């Protein structure tokens, strides 16, 4: 949120930092007026996108003396929120905080109400996670992934797993695991990561694959147990959790990214100013500390880099969706 009491000195420092980080003249920060800026999160509360958006809105507000608010507009695996932004006025006051699902949806929906690469302009990659965590309820007797798989393959075993929707990165990661491990389980989609984690803690499902921000607090509280990490190396935050490869399951590495997008037609000067403001915010020690606590790394970079990431992931996740047997709806 904005800080109306921010000093003129602090405000000038923010503009100077933005200019240094983004190579953008401070005057570009004036391209946007002082109206409220909405950051649309196309998922429910409690998940990584929501956490990142609220942190970013708070730091941007403090550093720019402007008001940023977060709106959760979940549904259709992020398509509802993304469509709101795609059709919003291109003035820089309606932004989208999205992740891999934006790249996945073109492969799992026969028709989208917008064109992902045409109707959304990349602004900046905010942060990334090094991998995903395979977690079970702490009451589950399985202490290792091998234990879990062995139990899941018993004739009487009936498994269900949660995800924050159909066709998102966590859903694809879980289906990829089932294929590689030779295990069967029913997919139970929820409206957001918070609901999925709650279902796992309640015993309604037997496992999920989630991000550190969404499952980390419950792991630290002892309510969940992590059995594997979907990355090439172990997590710095959870160093005792082995990778899938260490558990003899290959090809299950997954990464997460969260980026900021604006409607098509947003002027270049506005995109540049937003990019500079976010990159300056990512240099804030407090923001970096909170991101690190969530297992996330600040990224930054130019808009074109986020666009290239989105383009490559559309192709990569398309292949994963086919391998998982997910048919476009």
Topology:
Blueprint: H1 8-22, E1 37-41, H2 48-64, E2 68-72, H3 79-86, E3 94-98, H4 101-108, H5 116-119, E4 120-129, E5 133-137, H6 145-152, E6 160-163, H7 169-181, E7 186-189, H8 193-202, E8 207-210, H9 212-220, E9 224-229, E10 256-263, H10 268-282, H11 285-293, E11 296-300, H12 303-323
Parallel strand pairs: 1-2, 1-3, 6-7, 6-8
Antiparallel strand pairs: 3-10, 4-10, 4-11, 5-8, 5-9
Helix pairs in contact: 1-10, 2-10, 4-12
Signal peptide: 1-29
Protein name: Tripartite-type tricarboxylate transporter receptor subunit TctC
Keywords: Receptor, Signal
Describe what this molecule looks like in 3D:
The structure is a single chain. The protein is an alpha/beta fold. The chain has 2 domains: 8-129 and 257-323, Bordetella uptake gene, domain 1 (D-Maltodextrin-Binding Protein, domain 2, 3-Layer(aba) Sandwich); 133-247, Periplasmic binding protein-like II (D-Maltodextrin-Binding Protein, domain 2, 3-Layer(aba) Sandwich). The chain is 42% helix and 19% strand. It contains 12 helices and 11 strands. It has helices at residues 8-22, 48-64, 79-86, 101-108, 116-119, 145-152, 169-181, 193-202, 212-220, 268-282, 285-293, 303-323; strands at residues 37-41, 68-72, 94-98, 120-129, 133-137, 160-163, 186-189, 207-210, 224-229, 256-263, 296-300. The strands form 2 sheets. A 6-stranded mixed sheet has the order 2-1-3-10-4-11, with helices on both faces. Helix 2 (48-64) links the parallel strand 1 (37-41) and strand 2. The radius of gyration is 20 Å and the shape is globular. Residues 1-30 have low confidence and may be disordered. This is Tripartite-type tricarboxylate transporter receptor subunit TctC. It comes from Pseudacidovorax intermedius.
């Amino acid at each position: 949120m904005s800080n109306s009491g921010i000093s003129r000195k602090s405000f000038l420092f923010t503009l100077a930092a933005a200019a240094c980080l983004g190579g953008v003249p401070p005057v570009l920060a004036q391209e946007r007026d002082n109206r409220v800026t909405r950051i649309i999160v196309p998922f429910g509360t409690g998940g990584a996108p929501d956490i990142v958006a609220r942190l970013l809105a708070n730091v941007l507000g403090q550093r720019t003396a402007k008001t940023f608010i977060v709106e959760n507009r979940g549904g259709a695996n992020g398509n509802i929120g993304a469509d709101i932004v795609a059709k919003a006025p291109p003035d820089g006051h309606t932004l989208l905080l999205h992740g891999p699902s934006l790249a996945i949806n073109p492969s799992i929906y026969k028709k989208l109400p917008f064109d992902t690469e045409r109707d959304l302009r990349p602004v900046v990659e905010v942060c990334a996670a090094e991998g995903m965590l395979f977690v079970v309820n702490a009451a589950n007797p399985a202490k290792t992934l091998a234990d879990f798989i062995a139990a899941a393959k018993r004739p009487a075993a009936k498994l269900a797993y949660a995800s924050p929707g159909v066709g998102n990165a966590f859903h694809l990661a879980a289906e990829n695991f089932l294929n590689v491990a030779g295990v069967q389980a029913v997919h139970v989609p929820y409206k957001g990561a918070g609901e999925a984690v709650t279902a796992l803690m309640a015993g309604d499902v037997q496992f999920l694959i989630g991000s550190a921000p969404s499952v980390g607090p419950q792991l630290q509280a002892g309510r969940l147990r992590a059995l594997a990490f979907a990355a090439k190396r172990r997590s710095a935050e959870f160093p005792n959790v082995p990778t899938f490869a260490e558990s003899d399951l290959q090809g299950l590495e997954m990464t997460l990214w969260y980026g900021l997008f604006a409607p098509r037609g947003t002027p270049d000067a506005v995109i540049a100013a937003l990019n500079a403001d976010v990159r300056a915010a990512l240099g804030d020690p407090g923001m970096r500390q909170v991101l690190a606590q969530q297992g996330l790394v600040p990224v930054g970079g130019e808009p074109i880099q986020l666009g290239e990431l989105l383009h490559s992931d559309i192709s990569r996740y398309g292949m994963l969706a086919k391998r998982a047997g997910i048919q476009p709806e």
